[in-house]
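Researcher: We plan to redesign the surface later, but first we want a full-length starting point. Tokens attached.
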């Protein structure tokens, strides 16, 4: 599970195999031994997480996506451990990062923050329009970690738990797409500095890793699924009279969906992976090349 070519679909219909992937990543990082994680609590936690991810039947924002992002944070971490920045990814930071990758979209509504805000949903009212879904994902996860039956970290001291929670929430909030340009700008500015490595820098670094992992590889089949969610949302917005986002229109038409994807990959995904690869001393170059290939594939579909 250390490869960037990891693909969740062979495990999709087998919940046990999927949980084995998660278990294996935790074990390979020695998290189970180091944090004395009880297997009973871990099984309860993973089952509760999977249920909360899948209860709405989302096409894309489901447990498969959580496991995929977890695997990618693990794979990127392994590459960074071979660089001059290895000391910044200590065992604790790595544990928080990989676990927040798994949990980052739990209990997703299958809609965007803008939809939540326009529909004045309960979540929007609770979180005052700010990173509504991301705050919900973080809070849902922390609640599970506070419940006795699903608490996989009961051995943390109160100080360790506070540090865990602070970084865990920060990581998940960085998956809000509205943070994208700020995150990149701040990260690029900081890695040029000689004193890179402060607590804030580590937050930026793990924020970049989880945000990059959220756009793993760019497989076309995955993008079809997220576009189905967008299409559903566009139709609902029309039905309820909410403002409709132009990029969600006519995504059932292949050339239009392809055009939208080409723009997204060129201006959001490719720059993200390129910066991450540069930081990892070019160790993610193969993924950047795969993205170039994905863009070419979408361009072909766009011109069909």
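Model: Full-length starting sequence:
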């Amino acid at each position: 599970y250390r490869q960037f070519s990891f693909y969740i679909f062979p495990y999709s219909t087998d919940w046990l195999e999927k949980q084995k992937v998660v278990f294996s990543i935790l074990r390979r990082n020695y998290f189970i031994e180091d944090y004395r994680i009880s297997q009973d609590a871990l099984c309860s936690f993973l089952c509760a997480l999977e249920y909360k991810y899948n209860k709405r039947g989302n096409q894309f924002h489901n447990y498969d996506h959580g496991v995929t992002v977890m695997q990618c944070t693990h794979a990127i971490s392994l590459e960074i451990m071979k660089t001059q920045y290895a000391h910044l990814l200590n065992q604790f930071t790595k544990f928080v990062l990989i676990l927040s990758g798994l949990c980052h979209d739990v209990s997703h509504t299958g809609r965007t923050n803008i939809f939540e805000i326009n529909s004045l949903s309960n979540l929007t009212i609770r979180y005052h329009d700010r990173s509504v879904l991301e705050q919900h994902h973080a809070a849902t996860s922390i609640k599970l970690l506070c419940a006795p039956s699903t608490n996989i970290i009961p051995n943390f001291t109160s100080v360790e738990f506070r540090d865990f929670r602070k970084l865990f929430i920060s990581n998940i909030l960085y998956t809000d797409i509205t943070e994208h340009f700020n995150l990149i700008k701040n990260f690029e500015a900081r890695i040029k500095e000689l004193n890179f490595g402060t607590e804030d820098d580590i937050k930026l670094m793990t924020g970049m890793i989880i945000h990059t992992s959220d756009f793993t590889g760019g497989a076309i089949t995955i993008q079809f699924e997220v576009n189905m969610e967008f299409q559903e949302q566009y139709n609902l917005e029309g039905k309820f009279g909410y403002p409709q986002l132009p990029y969600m229109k006519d995504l059932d038409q292949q050339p239009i969906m392809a055009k939208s994807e080409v723009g997204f990959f060129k201006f959001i995904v490719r720059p993200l992976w390129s910066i991450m690869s540069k930081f990892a001393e070019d160790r993610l170059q193969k993924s950047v090349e795969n993205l170039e290939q994905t863009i070419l594939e979408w361009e072909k579909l766009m011109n069909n």
